[in-house]
Design brief:
20 strands, alpha+beta, 3 domains, five-stranded antiparallel beta sheet, Beta-Lactamase
């Protein structure tokens, strides 16, 4: 350890100085022997104390180990039971949801009752249309099979039949009617008389005055012996008949045996037994109601019944992934059947209660088919009514029983054991280190004892302790980050501390002097990553400003003269800045140091040596980066060329103060200013006259003919290419006289606007008045796009607005896009046009239908020969044509805020352009400049899209009464489409909540982005404030306003009708 090392060095140095002072002193002196004995006793005492301390430490470590182990076990057990209880709770919660099983099963009963009731009404209605005297019981429902087949499929019934009530007096006539009717409409031969299950003809009995023959049945009977079968021979039918005639509504039987009937209609023989019940409804003889009711019409003419297997009630009632519910059906007529439900399937388990008693606490019980139960006067006769009991099974429990509790507990215990292991290893390492330190200390102490008297030993030890404390204090300061601060902060601290006094009384002593920070004359600021960062270059320039301002303002003048002598107060400072990739390495020697190498360092040295006193000289590369980063007003072009050794002539700049003279930089431009008019040259600035652009109208006319319909969506680009800044072109533009528009072009412009106006439909909202409102909003935003702090400096203004202010064609394209963005709007959304299979949706592949249609119509009109002079004022070269077309397409398509792909692309573009990270350009200078230019254009694209988007909904970001006016118009337009049947949902039902969501998820975020992009001055604050205020107003008054608009629109409908 450092303290012991210091102690040894102190001993060696002290021995040399003491040798001359204590010559002749014998170390074997008795007094020394006594002192040795004393020290020996002290050592024994210290050893005893050390043993006691070691014992305490060991006990403490053991306590820590045990505590960690117990804590791990306790937390693991707690986690196990917590996870186990969570599984049990999930299991019980899922079981509680099985009440839905009862509800859905009840729905199946209701459906079957409805179908039976409908069939009974159909038969009564048919009988009503016939001659009453010649009807009952001779009634046959036409197309019985066709009518009943749908009911069979909907309810899952196995058999549905019609049973007329035949009085004894009409038995023979009914049998004759049945034989004639069957021969006329069916094939095969039916029994000639009403018979029982044995095929014997029914005889009239003294207590029996009617028969109940089965007349019509579905599915089609394969065994015709069941036709004219007297159903009264079945005991269950007799009980149902009595109940129905008493309660006058549909009644469901208990679990009965109807296998005899089913065999006659079933194509194959089934071996599996299924419990079944019968649902039966009486059929009135007539549908006559009111005063014309007669006793005859109220009499029952027969019955309709349906045979339904209980399995059908429990199918498709729980999710398919659940398995293992038991449902016990008790009809209270002596039958109990247990079903098992697995997903969508239900199977019979057997008769009786078959559930596991351990799940009785989760038992759920409910009445079943209550609407089809007997509710008449209680008699001694048993009337069936159903109770359903639902229980879980072990299989269901297993779905919610996993190994998660054990794994969770094991993982926690493992973490604690691992922690204990790490702590044990660390403790062993510390103990080993402490033993080594103690051994070294013991040897050192023995050496000191053998060489020096006691008083000398104490002084040496005191010095060693003092040195150790100093080293410890230095370590604390280093731990606080004194040597890990940014370059800018170190400069500030150093300069500030230097000015506290000439004697070096620094304000912060932990900050190293400037000489240690910058041992060479060149200031170097380097990124720790491979990418060159524009923000770091800007930071470097700020550091150079700070350093230069401090020195040349003579704050160091007195200190320099005192330190270096007279006539040195006029010394100046020369700083050079250059940007680019470097290679780092370590130079070895007496004092190893880090050094940088490469062409970037050489160029920096040339920039510094060719600079001037008290000025900051920067290379063209650094100037380009600063200008692209929006700091062009910091740079000033050096008038004379610099002839640097090994570099030849170089164009360089001076770095001026931020509040210094306005920039006269020529800027960055890939154009040579000659105005060649090449197709890919969209870097024109301001007016074409300023750039001497040569018109190529023949090429323009040719390219105009290539425009195609229906391809607008494919023309959308992620980034619009806006012109770069050209100082010379700007200067020429400023010298130009105002341009007067040609009278023909002005006349054609007016005619074009008039023609566009006629193409707008008379919609309440999407009309030409709305377009005028959008145009005024676009104009307003462009008029306020200049920030006060940069106005007046063309270069600064260009950088601040991402090049938008330098291109009049961009301004015109934005206004033009606002003019045409809703041409031929149908008054409905794109989704409605797609749902209607509108021809326009087919043309535009169901993507941004209205917007693409508007662009195509307006562009086709602009290409008409009647507007050729107007077009020549907009563009005269193919490059200008393409630039204008691309601007119009992107801006109009930006108004489609519902297309998910376009919306996501805009969000990604914003995130990429305005993210906090700037370290994404790569190490290549050319790549960096290209990516910077792309990012500036990306920001410009976003700003332009937000201008048109905000203008399209500007009523939401204006005064409340303006918002109310346009909101009511949009409501009217949507209601009109709903009344016309073009939309399926009434917009009034969700208008209030929809507007709140529109504010929260689109309007207010859009207004915030207008503010965040930082180019609109006070307008962005104004738009955001109005949006938030209108949101609050709507939340407070919106519901009442929607009700008022409902009434107003309803009154308008009545008036127009």
């Amino acid at each position: 350890m450092p303290p012991f090392t210091i102690q040894i060095e102190a001993s060696e140095s002290s021995s040399k100085s003491l040798s001359s002072r204590h010559d002749g002193v014998s170390l074997s002196d008795p007094s020394q022997s006594n002192n040795t004995n004393i020290r020996s006793d002290g050592s024994t005492s210290n050893g005893s104390f050390t043993k006691d301390e070691t014992k305490v430490v060991n006990h403490t470590k053991l306590l820590v180990y045990v505590s960690l182990l117990l804590a791990g076990v306790a937390i693991s057990i707690t986690a196990y039971f917590f996870a186990k209880n969570k599984e049990q709770n999930d299991f019980e919660a899922e079981v509680s949801k099985t009440f839905e099983t009862i509800d859905l099963s009840e729905t199946n009963v209701e459906n079957t009752m409805g179908q039976v009731h409908s069939l009974a009404i159909a038969i009564s209605s048919h009988a009503t249309t016939m001659d009453q005297d010649a009807v009952w019981p001779n009634v046959t429902l036409p197309h019985f099979l066709e009518r009943v087949s749908e009911a069979v499929s909907l309810t899952g019934s196995e058999l549905i039949g019609f049973i007329p009530i035949v009085p004894i007096s009409q038995k023979n006539s009914f049998e004759e009617y049945a034989a004639a009717e069957w021969i006329e409409h069916h094939e095969g031969e039916i029994p000639k008389t009403i018979h029982n299950v044995k095929g014997e003809a029914e005889r009239a009995e003294s207590e029996k005055d009617t028969y109940a023959p089965l007349w019509q049945v579905a599915p089609q009977a394969s065994d015709l012996d069941i036709v004219l079968l007297d159903m009264a021979t079945f005991s269950w039918f007799h009980l149902l008949e009595q109940d129905i005639l008493e309660v006058k509504h549909t009644v469901m039987s208990g679990i009965v045996d109807v296998e005899y009937l089913l065999k006659a209609t079933r194509p194959i023989e089934l071996t599996e037994w299924h419990p079944r019940s019968v649902i039966m409804q009486e059929v009135s003889k007539s549908m006559t109601t009111g005063e014309s009711d007669t006793e005859n019409s109220k009499e029952p003419g027969g019955f309709v019944f349906a045979v339904l297997p209980w399995k059908q009630f429990f199918q498709n009632v729980i999710p398919h992934e659940l398995h293992g519910f038991l449902v016990e059906v008790n009809d209270h007529c002596g039958s109990i059947v247990t079903y098992r439900i697995d997903g969508h399937d239900a199977t019979v388990v057997g008769n009786g209660n078959m559930h596991d008693s351990k799940y009785d606490y989760l038992h759920m019980k409910a009445k079943f088919g209550s609407s089809a139960q007997y509710d008449g006067v209680e008699t001694s006769t048993d009337h069936c009514h159903y109770i359903i009991d639902v229980y879980p099974t072990d299989e269901l429990k297993e779905l919610y029983t996993t190994h998660t509790p054990i794994l969770f507990a094991s993982a926690i215990l493992g973490v604690f054991l691992f922690t204990i292991g790490i702590f044990f290893c660390y403790d062993c390492a510390v103990e080993r280190r402490q033993r080594r330190i103690a051994s070294i200390a013991k040897r050192t102490n023995n050496i000191v004892k053998s060489l020096f008297p006691k008083n000398v030993q104490e002084r040496i030890m005191a010095e060693a302790i003092e040195e150790a404390e100093k080293a410890e204090q230095a370590g604390k300061l280093k731990g606080k980050g004194a040597y890990h601060v940014s370059m800018k902060d170190r400069l500030k601290e150093t300069l500030a501390s230097s000015m506290q006094g000439h004697q070096g009384d620094y304000a912060h002593k932990n900050v190293p002097p400037i000489a240690d920070l910058f041992p060479s004359r060149t200031i170097m600021v380097c990124s720790t990553k491979d990418e060159l960062n524009a923000e770091k270059v800007t930071y470097c320039a700020q550091s150079a400003h700070l350093f230069n301002d401090t020195v040349i303002s003579h704050k160091f003048a007195d200190l320099v003269e005192i330190t270096l002598g007279p006539d040195t107060g006029e010394l100046g400072l020369r700083i050079g800045l250059h940007s680019g990739p470097v290679t780092g390495g370590v130079l070895r020697g007496d004092k190893a140091r880090f050094q940088l190498f490469g062409d970037t360092m050489n160029t920096t040295a040339r920039i510094e040596t060719t600079g001037k006193k008290n000025m900051i000289h920067i290379s063209e590369t650094t100037a380009n980066i600063l200008q692209a980063f929006g700091k062009g007003h910091w740079t000033k072009l050096r008038e004379d060329k610099v002839n640097a050794k090994g570099k030849g002539e170089m164009t360089t700049y001076w770095l001026v103060k931020t509040d210094g003279p306005k920039s006269t930089s020529s800027g960055i431009s890939s154009s040579d200013g000659t105005g060649t008019g090449q197709e890919d040259d969209v870097d024109s600035v301001d007016a074409r006259a300023a750039l001497y652009v040569s018109a190529d109208l023949d090429a323009v006319r040719r390219i105009e003919k290539d425009a195609s319909i229906g391809q607008v969506f494919e023309e959308i680009t992620e980034i619009l290419d806006l012109p770069k800044f050209d100082a010379e072109a700007t200067a020429r533009q400023s010298a130009l006289t105002p341009i007067t528009l040609d009278p023909k072009a002005a006349e054609q412009l007016e005619a074009y606007v008039h023609a566009i106006a006629t193409l707008y439909h008379d919609n309440p909202f999407h009309n030409f008045e709305h377009v005028s409102h959008v145009i005024m909003s676009v104009t307003k935003l462009f008029s306020r796009i200049v920030a006060p702090e940069v106005s007046g400096d063309n270069r600064a203004l260009h950088d601040h607005t991402y090049g938008i202010t330098s291109d009049p064609l961009t301004h015109f394209a934005a206004v033009f896009a606002a003019l045409i963005h809703d041409v031929d709007h149908q008054g409905v959304t794109n989704a409605t046009l797609v749902d209607e299979n509108n021809p326009l949706a087919t043309v535009y592949n169901n993507k941004s239908v209205a917007e693409q249609n508007s662009v195509d119509i307006a562009w086709s009109l602009l290409m008409d020969d009647a507007f050729i002079d107007f077009r020549n004022c907009i563009y005269t070269t193919p490059a200008e044509y393409r630039h204008f077309r691309q601007l119009v397409v992107n801006l109009v398509m930006a108004t489609d805020i519902m297309d998910k792909s376009l919306s996501q692309a805009r969000k990604d573009r914003w995130a990429k352009a305005f993210s906090d990270s700037s370290d994404e350009y790569g190490s290549s200078l050319n790549t960096m400049e290209e990516e910077m230019e792309r990012n500036v254009n990306r920001k410009a694209t976003i700003v332009l899209e937000h201008v048109i988007q905000a203008s399209d909904v500007s009523h939401t970001m204006q005064h409340w009464h303006i918002y109310r006016k346009w909101n009511a118009r949009l409501f009217e337009e949507m209601m009109k489409a709903y009344r016309q049947g073009r939309t399926q949902v009434n917009p009034a039902d969700r208008w209030y909540e929809g507007e709140k969501g529109f504010f929260d998820f689109y309007i207010i975020p859009l207004a915030k982005k207008l503010k965040d992009c930082g180019v609109f001055g006070v307008s962005s604050e104004e738009y955001l404030n109005y949006a938030e205020t209108n949101r609050k107003e709507w939340e407070a008054k919106g519901e009442a306003l929607v009700a008022e608009m409902r009434r107003h629109f309803a009154g308008w409908i009545c008036f127009t009708i």
